UniProtKB/TrEMBL annotation, chains A, E:
One of its GO terms (molecular function) is ATP binding. Belongs to the ABC transporter superfamily. Gene3D superfamilies: P-loop containing nucleotide triphosphate hydrolases. This is ABC-type polar-amino-acid transporter.
Automatic annotation (TrEMBL), chains B, D:
Residues 78-298 form the ABC transmembrane type-1 domain. This is Amino acid ABC transporter permease. It is found in: Cell membrane; Membrane. Residues 7-16 have a biased composition (Pro residues). GO terms for biological process: amino acid transport; transmembrane transport. Pfam families: BPD_transp_1. The lineage of its organism: Bacteria, Bacillati, Actinomycetota, Actinomycetes, Micromonosporales. Its main location: membrane. Residues 1-21 are annotated as: Disordered. PROSITE patterns: ABC_TM1. It comes from Natronosporangium hydrolyticum.
Length: 258, 330, 275, 330, 258
């Protein structure tokens, strides 16, 4: 089932996506090597979220191909024909891809620990006690060992987002997608989440991160892409792009944000 | 997960930079769902059986149904239903606003009375209320308006049988079935409307009243100009539901009795001709028609109200985005 | 009485009853407060064909009770305002003064007489009816399903029979009480219930109206008079009604009306207050 | 603007830096509101008149009311009301969930059938439905279950009068007043519950399903573990209202008829003893009692559910604040 | 009716305020001279909003006194006794005090122009056409001359906040209160609102501004106060306080925010 993967973990090829008659992605090409952190910048509405959501098939693309770890996402290609994957198969693909949302989307009726354990337990990824140990270890890693029995409503936004990261990590993903993970947070709480993400990057996790935190991009990013109107208009090492943007749109965007 | 059909790949906009031609659109073979179709099949068989009963069971006597569906007494019944619904709703809304204001008042006597009113009228079944109102004539044979407790006050000053009544009616000419039924429905509706209005007012962001107060507007001005117009958004949809419920509950008037009302009339024909079932079907058809009309209207009204706000917000989002985008790209 | 249902169809011309001329002597008898407005307000439950029911126009109350009482009132120089009411609410309504008279096939009995005055005007009995070809023995109805209208004397009748069955060690009667006689009759026609019992004119009308689906079974029994209901404080009005009734019996109008409705079998010749 | 009474000035916490003693608490003379008190006076007079009628009008015959309030037939009627309410609600919820799922299904046949079901049962007045169900025996004298359209299928294969019915009942022994009434109420309730369940499911933030999907949970797992538990918050309050409405609507069963039901029994006593009005009052009292009990329960349940979320959020706010404050001050 | 006002526009003396049994303001003293801009800093829950709300009597204080322009707020003192003011009198006092909220609180059912005109029209502050001209001039001043007929939902957050400022100015207030006017805004939109506020300050408006925008405080503020637990723990010229905070709490707070 390996596609033309080479040594890329993610390969996005000529992806087009429209909602109704509104084109949102107009031919996006992107590759991410294992262990690389790719930061996505761009104005509101440029299709950053949509691109992430296509990678784990939360949205169906209209044209193009996406491979993650060599597997074609959402479809099976056989004898020149595409077959939709069954729901079960899509779910299996998604397990290799962790996703962290802007609004955290923790399950409010479960404790912090239950949030992290839910998916591994339902998907029978080991004995319950083994899963619990792993969840505790993950929560410890994001600095929340003392909050395991709290409900999401009882902890701060920054803590919630760290739980969301632990929850995604509990499925041992090969790739993590972050969609503006800090933009719903009070400024004082942004740092604690970025710290966790930095730690992840240092441990070699492959990540695609949509964010407006330029400092993070500069410090942690291996590649930076700038999107506008559903296209990648500029890409390169973060320091270069940030210091010396080539494209007009990038320039004017950075002028406002920096 | 969206499961819409795959639309065609859009052409790139003409002014975009030249790039690789768009690849072929994805036309994948969809997954089959046999279980879902089995269930649908079951439902289809049930529907067919239902239709079969409707068409072949003699008890329906369709020709009799259609003969009687538009006779003058039935049409008069429909008119009565519509008239009483509208009248009761009008009174109910007016009185409901008064009761809601009382309920929100800081004065415990006013808010207590309003609480008692809504409690009583919402806790007793409407059929019981209506029969009660139909029998109110038992309490008084005259209804009189004037100084309250006149006799007692007179006695206090030593005047025997002092009366200070301004005008009065013979209860039985005033409390006809129609009036008793209308009154019962309207007072009951007022209790429900009061709760809706109250909830509507409470649903308005308190920041709105604060902003108005901070501008120096008085409390009545704030209520009239700022709070009520916004409360309407929360008031209109349940009011639509109330109107539909009220229309259906006019059928209960048959037990007051209000004789020229639709349900009484369909039953009267059934009683006279002993063709009960066809007339039940006729009643169903009329009510289905009337409530469906209201439901469609409600849909329009709600959509209109949604357009004013929610949809507008979406539009604003889009505008806002193109606005920022324009700035980002210029 | 035997029913003649066809009659009521061409009997909407109530115009012939008001031609009865008022008898000034009798009109004298009417209490002044009632004579003042020239009208009698009458409570009636118009769901009991052929005695009293809504005509095809959905507004007029008609039936032999109606024709008869209109005639009596005309004799007294009064007109009648018919106010439809639930059956059970009529006697309390008369007691409270809401109605001046109750005319709705009230069978005169002890309980009612303790509450109100009654003027007898017709003799009705209880008559059973059952689906044609499936006769039922009223005296051995144990274990059957019987339909009656709620609040009528037949409810007490059938309850007693059921208790008798149980006392005899047989299974009780399943008593189905309906809001209106129409629903009770319909339930027998449809086979939901095995038989019904009602006032004799009503059973006869039901048999006639259901195109042979039902037939009368057994004899009329427990014949008892119907009475006009009057408040006990208005005994003068009761006397006046009795006199008016006697007058139309004497001049033959009474029997004409009953014959027209096919219920002349229940005619009486000695109307009385509280017989 | 808050208009609470002025609480005493709190002592400064003991570990606070020394500072000027707190000044005298403000004890201002409040503004008078004569208009408000006038309105309250009017309400008080009306209430007194109401009480006066209750106590002095002979039509109420209070001793008769209390004599009959706890007689065995009435108590049996109350029991029937409670039993039917609970049974109809149980069936209604179960069937309602099924209908809601059908309505949300992607299959147009299933969702169409569910739409038709809710439309019909919500558009026809319950009283009409119940009388209709009371007369369903007119349609069939036997109810039979087995292969649908067996006779027609037999005819297709040339077999005369082919029957494939597995079991059947005599309709009239099954469709007693009780069963017909219960069925009518339950099916009608299912339509309302279906709408409530559907709205509850739609009210859950789609981000929740997305998060579950992104974790690799299947759709049924997502529904059961993530969506339904949260939908309960939106489902419980209207379900409480439905339960109260259902309890009140059991009075309509008197017209099916279900003879051992409270409203039928109170009316029967009234008609037998010619004391309609006292028995109407007795019925009101029982319904007031029963619905008030449910309202109090509902209040508790809603508060319980609110505690799980909203209030918790407030608590979290406070904790969060003290947390940051602690950091800010350490 | 002049109190002991001296040359202060605002005088706050020993104000205490508690909600139920929770003390929120524990003896606040503050004076603001005409034309001065006072910036209020402090952690969440320290009582900044409550202080502002007490100044225009949106909250009743439990002890102390507040004078604005020489008038005692919310009460009349006569022969040693305090009388609550009638609602009408409180409303009249509030007209002299403009307030801008974090959540804008524009009236969503009125256009931008109607929002600005509403209060002057209801309170009959001149002919309708005169009021309209003044409203147009104000909207022009905040850069929204082209949005007068839009509804609040159709314009950006930054634009909404500018309308809210114009709406408050339409009553010709002597004092403007700002409660975190930019913290509900996307970062790109903060600047446009701060610019309007700077303009106001330059034109000599007296302002009390709760904000976390340190740059604004430094550039525009005449005084900076730092609140914690319902007390003013530090006050002084912004540059000094920011560069060299004296109090522990101020230090640790600034360390996090800067
Ligand atoms: N489900 C949807 N249906 C219709 N249009 C959508 C949908 N989701 C997104 N869009 C549109 O697609 C475009 C791109 O949206 P997207 O959320 O990917 O942008 P973004 O770059 O993430 O912006 P932001 O910074 O605001 O999150 C927008 O114009 C948006 O209105
Ligand atoms: N209406 C209220 N009822 C009860 N407590 C309140 C109320 N308003 C505020 N509080 C409490 O008063 C304290 C101070 O609140 P305030 O809003 O003044 O703080 P703040 O400094 O503005 O904080 P933030 O930066 O979060 O806006 C908080 O602990 C808050 O919980
Ligand atoms: Mg996005
Ligand atoms: Mg605040």
């Amino acid at each position: 089932m390996t596609g033309a993967a080479g040594d890329y973990l993610v390969r996005i090829e000529q992806v087009h996506k429209s909602f109704g008659h509104t084109p949102v992605l107009n031919g996006v090409d992107l590759t991410v090597r294992p262990g690389e952190v790719t930061v996505v910048l761009g104005p509101s509405g440029s299709g950053k979220s949509t691109l992430l959501r296509c990678v784990n098939h939360l949205e169906k693309i209209n044209a193009g191909r996406i491979w993650v770890d060599g597997e074609l996402i959402g479809y099976r290609e056989r004898r020149g024909k595409l077959y939709e994957l069954r729901e079960r198969e899509v779910a299996a693909q998604r397990r290799a891809i962790g996703m962290v949302f802007q609004q955290f989307n923790l399950f409010p009726h479960m404790t912090v620990l239950e949030n992290v354990m839910e998916a591994p337990v339902r998907l029978r990824q080991g004995s319950k006690s083994a899963i619990r140990d792993r969840a505790m270890a993950l929560l410890d890693r994001v600095g929340l060992a003392d909050k395991v029995d709290s409900y999401p409503a009882h902890i701060s936004g920054g803590q919630q987002q760290r739980v969301a990261i632990a929850r995604a990590l509990a499925m041992r993903p090969k790739l993590m997608l972050f969609d503006e993970p800090t933009s719903a947070l009070d400024p004082e709480l942004v740092g604690e989440v970025l710290d966790v993400m930095k730690g992840l990057a240092q441990d070699g996790m492959t990540m695609i991160v949509v964010t407006h935190e330029i400092g993070f991009a500069r410090e942690v990013g291996d590649a930076l892409i700038f999107m506008d109107e559903g296209r990648i208009v500029e890409a390169g090492p973060p320091r270069e792009v940030l210091a010396n943007p080539q494209h007009e749109r990038t320039k004017s965007f950075l002028a406002k944000v920096l | 997960m969206s499961n819409q059909a795959t639309p065609p790949v859009p052409d790139p906009p003409p002014d975009s930079p030249p790039e690789r031609a768009a690849p072929e659109a994805i036309r994948a073979i969809p997954v089959r769902h046999p279980g879902r179709w089995l269930a649908a099949g079951g439902v289809a068989v049930l529907a067919a059986m239902f239709a079969h009963v409707l068409l072949t069971n003699e008890a329906f006597q369709w020709s009799f149904v259609f003969e009687n569906l538009f006779t003058p007494p039935i049409l008069r019944g429909v008119r009565t239903v519509v008239v009483i619904t509208l009248l009761a709703m009008a009174i109910g809304i007016t009185l409901g606003i008064v009761v809601a204001m009382m309920r929100l008042s800081a004065n415990p006597l006013l808010s207590g009375a309003a609480w008692f009113y809504t409690w009583f009228f919402r806790a007793v079944p409407r059929i019981v209320l209506l029969v009660l109102f139909g029998n109110l004539g038992i309490l008084w044979d005259r209804l009189e308006f004037g100084l309250p407790f006149d006799r007692q006050i007179g006695a206090l000053f030593g005047i025997q049988d002092f009366q200070a009544r301004i005008f009065g009616f013979d209860a039985r000419t005033v409390l006809t079935g129609f009036v008793a039924g209308l009154l019962g429905l309207a007072l009951s509706e007022a209790a429900y409307m009061a709760e809706i209005v109250r909830a509507g007012i409470l649903s308005v962001d308190p920041g709105q009243s604060e902003a108005a107060a901070a501008l120096g507007l008085s409390r009545p001005q704030t209520l009239r100009r700022v709070v009520l117009p916004q409360a309407m958004r929360a008031i209109i949809p349940p009011t639509g539901n109330e109107l539909i419920a009220l229309l259906k509950d006019t059928a209960l008037l048959a037990y007051v009795p209000v004789t020229n009302e639709l349900w009484f009339q369909t039953q009267a024909i059934g009683a006279r001709t002993f063709r009960i079932f066809p007339m039940l079907v006729a009643a169903c058809m009329w009510y289905l028609f009337l409530t469906s009309v209201l439901m469609v209207l409600q849909n329009f009204v709600e959509r209109y109200f949604a357009r004013g706000y929610g949809a507008a917000r979406d539009r604003a989002r889009v505008r806002l985005r193109s606005f920022t985008r324009g700035q980002g790209g210029a | 009485g035997c029913g003649n249902g066809d009659d009521n169809n061409n009997d909407n011309d109530n115009g012939d009853t008001p031609t009865i001329e008022a008898d000034p002597d009798l009109a004298e008898l009417v209490p002044d407060d009632i004579a003042a407005d020239g009208q009698l307000s009458v409570g009636v439950d118009a769901t009991y064909p052929p005695n009293e029911y809504l005509a095809e126009d959905g507004q007029t109350v008609e039936g032999f009770d109606v024709d008869l009482f209109d005639a009596v009132a005309a004799k007294l120089g009064l007109t009648v305002e018919w106010s439809p009411a639930p059956f059970g609410a009529i006697i309390p309504g008369v007691e409270s003064g809401e109605y001046e008279v109750g005319v709705s096939s009230f069978t005169i009995n002890e309980e009612r007489l303790t509450e109100v005055d009654m003027v007898s005007y017709f003799n009705a009995g209880t008559q059973w009816a059952a689906p044609a070809g499936e006769p039922v023995d009223p005296d051995n109805a144990c274990g059957l399903r019987i339909a009656v209208q709620r609040d009528t004397v037949q409810v007490d009748d059938i309850t007693e029979r059921s208790e008798q069955c149980e006392a005899d060690g047989e299974s009780a009667i399943t008593i189905e009480q309906f809001q209106g006689q129409d629903l009770a009759t319909a339930s027998v026609v449809s086979g939901q219930n095995d038989a019904m019992l009602a006032d004799s004119p009503v059973s006869a009308y039901a048999v006639a109206q259901t195109d042979g689906a039902l037939e009368l079974v057994g004899e009329i029994y427990d014949a008892a008079p119907y009475g006009y209901v009057v408040n006990q404080d208005q005994s003068q009005l009761a006397e006046a009604l009795q006199a008016g009734l006697q007058a139309i019996i004497d001049d033959g109008t009474y029997l004409d009306i009953l014959t027209e409705w096919g219920v002349e079998g229940g005619a009486i010749d000695d109307p009385a207050v509280n017989p």
